[in-house]
């Protein structure tokens, strides 16, 4: 009977509409699968640190294990770190849902992106003094403003620069440049590192939520797996363009084009 209903519906519609209807149905299914996967991934990412914290609470609660001050302080240190991870994850999840809700509401105000990039570089220089190499900066003077959301552009600059520092090799420089595109209509923000690089098969998937090339290593360096997904959403909302180029063993360059504000 179901099939008959389908046949009737197909007959009532023109042949072109039939295809549209089927395509739309599979599109909805794909979106639903993505949503289910997302909830499963997010829950798993939160459960792992929660289980660790719970385990250490139980250990510390045991008088035999909880008495040695050195052990106590080591366990408390791990618990603090796992709590930081959960906090970072929830913060990124909140940013992601906010940016998604604003998808059809492009930003309107001029923002001094050069200033944001310089401030982000200064902050990272201060927090990562022990990296053994500097961030080299090439920013053209008097660049025009971009049309944007200052908070989101700060997050974008921070995520890209942070990745370059995390996945770059210690002792090698990170290169940051911000210049006008040839036509002058866009600003080109590029961050290059000399890290291990990314194999070509991973490149198209990097902006998927929770996608990590090497989850063991990525977890060690402290990522949430949401950084590039956030970057992609921010770039799209700003009507910009994101490109990631990488050579295994040589390094990675992330380039972002952002439309400038009308003079
Ligand atoms: P994470 O929080 O794990 O860093 P991201 O979304 O920022 O998540 O990045 C996704 C993955 O892409 C990372 O886990 C890492 O494997 C890879 N990646 C991102 N940036 C770089 C880079 N500059 N060099 C090498 N790999 C990178």
Written account of the structure:
The chain is 55% helix and 15% strand. With 263 residues, the chain is α+β, with helices and mostly antiparallel strands. Strand 4 (174-180) and strand 5 form a beta hairpin. The protein starts with a helix and ends with a strand. The structure holds adenosine-5'-diphosphate. Residues 159, 163-164, 167, 193, 195, 198, 206, 211-214, 218, 223-229, 252 line the site of adenosine-5'-diphosphate. Keywords: Kinase, Membrane, Phosphoprotein, Transferase, Two-component regulatory system. This is histidine kinase. One of its GO terms (biological process) is cellular response to phosphate starvation.
What is the alpha-carbon Rg in Å?
23 Å
Poorly predicted sequence stretches spanning 5 or more consecutive residues: 7-12, 14-21
SS-derived structural category: alpha+beta
Overall morphology: globular
Largest sheet composition: 5 strands, mixed
Attached small molecules: adenosine-5'-diphosphate
Question: Number of helical segments?
Answer: 8
Helix content: 55-70%
Number of strands: 7
**Beta-strand fraction estimate:** 15-25%
Summed over residues and divided by their number, the pLDDT gives a mean of 87
For the largest sheet, list the strands in their spatial order. Answer: 2-4-5-7-6
Beginning-to-end CA distance, first to last residue: 64 Å
Element-level helix/strand string: HHHHEHEEHEEHHEE
What does the oligomeric state look like here? single chain
